[in-house]
Amino acid sequence: MKRLIPFLLMLAFTGIMLTGCNGNHGSTKKKPLKYEMNMKKNLFGTVDGKQVFEFTLTNKNGVEVKILNYGGLVTQLLVPDKQGNFDDVVLGYDSLQDYIKDTPYFGAIVGRYGNRIAKGQFTIDGQTYKLALNNGPNHLHGGIKGFDKIVWDAEDFIKPEAAGVILTHLSPDNEEGYPGNLKAKITYTLTNDNELKIDYEAETDKSTVINLTHHSYFNLKGQGNGNILGHHMQILADRFTPVDATLIPTGELKDVQSTLMDFRKPESIGSRIEQVEGGYDHNFVLNNTDGKMRLVAKVAEPKTGRKMEVLTDQPGIQFYSGNFLDGSNIGKGGKPYLKHFGFCLETQHFPDSPNQANFPSTLLKPGETYKTQTIYRFGVTE
Ligand code: BGC
Q1: Which of 62, 66, 156, 235 could, after both became Cys, cross-link 76 (CB 3.0–4.6 A)?
Q2: What is the 331 CA–ligand 1 centroid distance (Å)?
Q3: Ligand 1 pocket check: which of 141, 246, 247, 320 to mutate, most ligand atoms within 8 Å of Cβ?
């Protein structure tokens, strides 16, 4: 008996060891991580007496996006690098309070009009509408309390191949000075192809102008991990819209040939930025505008191998290189965001279109539906 006990103990120990081996080290191949499309909803806080939820969408590859119904903010986006390591590639804050206090539109849905309207005014059918001047002499990104600062109604959905959040808002006539009761709907969808898809829709009961966009600041090295100057940028645009000192387009559609705006071939963001007064903050006139979806921009980060492609049906894209970041915004994990720590690629109609007759129209009339789509697609370089 005395000899049997150690023997039995040894058998039991061997059994545990074998089970452990089978479970964890049985195969020489790296065990594939198993995820499936998933959606979680948590209460995140309250604004204007309305509940703000954080929706966490995860796809089968482990790509994860967090979205708030406050401002339609994308607060986190985890994507893998070449080695399969995940990092959060968008700038933002940890708390709702920080977003409310001060944000340069981190991750936001921007509306009713993305970018600038000169002197904050436009005329429709002989009637002039006046908007807030919240950017020097001009109106920017929908005004004082634009679509980035409201609590949207939210509904989530999940299917085997995609999960998403549908945000709706009824913007009353004269909200921020814009005419018409505007029904706006934003659908965020995460797909198993590592795409973050944004569908925008709107209808009005009075002629108005509209130009919705998304304002994530991306950094493919991971948020807070230095600047984006080493990223390679490609924008499929033969022309851009030069601006005056207050960043209002002059009306010219200028050929990018022999200018600092030539990104038709991939070019590092930092290579010419010193020569661009203030940094990049320009609208590019995208090629092949016929209302259909097409690839319009590609960004790659050489060290991590992460890449992002942008597809849209829109005529323009604002490439903004985070010029106004100055370290005063302390982001997620206590990381200060310095100049050029993020870049935005905002698909859009051209800035100040309501006042520029030669730009594609941003007029939305009763009975019409504004409907556009943009996709941010993530991958790694070969
Ligand atoms: C604009 C910039 C502005 C930034 C943050 C961009 O879309 O083009 O001029 O500073 O948003 O507000």
Answers
A1: 66
A2: 18
A3: 320
Sign of CA dihedral 276, 282, 285, 286: positive
Q: What angle do CA 335, 338, 340 make, to 5 degrees?
A: 125
- Per-position DSSP letters for 170-227, written without gaps between them: EE-TTGGG--S-EEEEEEEEEETTSEEEEEEEEEESS-EE-B-EEEPPB-TT-TTSS-
Q: pLDDT at residue 30 above 80?
A: no
| Cα 243 from Cα 246, distance rounded (Å) | 7
d(CA 175, CA 365): 17
Q: Is 346 in the pocket of ligand 1 (CB under 6 A)?
A: yes
Active-site pick, 169, 176, 346, 349: 346
Are residues 121 and 158 in contact, defined by beta-carbon separation less than 8 angstroms? Answer: no
Identity at 100, one-letter amino acid code:
I
pLDDT at 123 over 60: yes
How far, in Å, is the centroid of ligand 1 from the Cα of 238?
22
Beta bridge partners of 41: 55
State in Å: Cα 140 to ligand 1 middle. Answer: 8
Task: Identify the structural domains of the chain with CATH numbers, from first to last.
Answer: 38-380 (2.70.98.10)
Q: How many CB atoms lie within 10 A of CB 323?
A: 16
pLDDT cut 90: percent of the chain above it = 90
Residue whose structure tokens are 């870049």: 343
For 248-295, write each residue's pLDDT tens digit.
999 999 999 999 999 999 999 999 999 999 999 999 999 999 999 999
pLDDT tens string 31-69: 446 678 999 999 999 999 999 999 999 999 999 999 999
Q: With 80 as the cut, is the pLDDT of residue 4 above it?
A: no
Instruction: Name which residue sits closest to atom 9 of ligand 1, judged by CA.
Output: 281
* C-beta neighbour count of 45 within 10 angstroms: 17
Q: Which two tokens stand for residue 338?
A: 């310095």
CB of 318 within 6 A of ligand 1: the answer is yes
Angle in degrees, CA 145, 375, 327, rounded to 5: 50
| Residue 340 known to be catalytic | no
pTM of the model: 0.91
- At residue 173, the 3 state secondary structure works out as coil
Residue 13 scores a pLDDT above 50: no
- The per-residue pLDDT of the chain, averaged, comes to 92
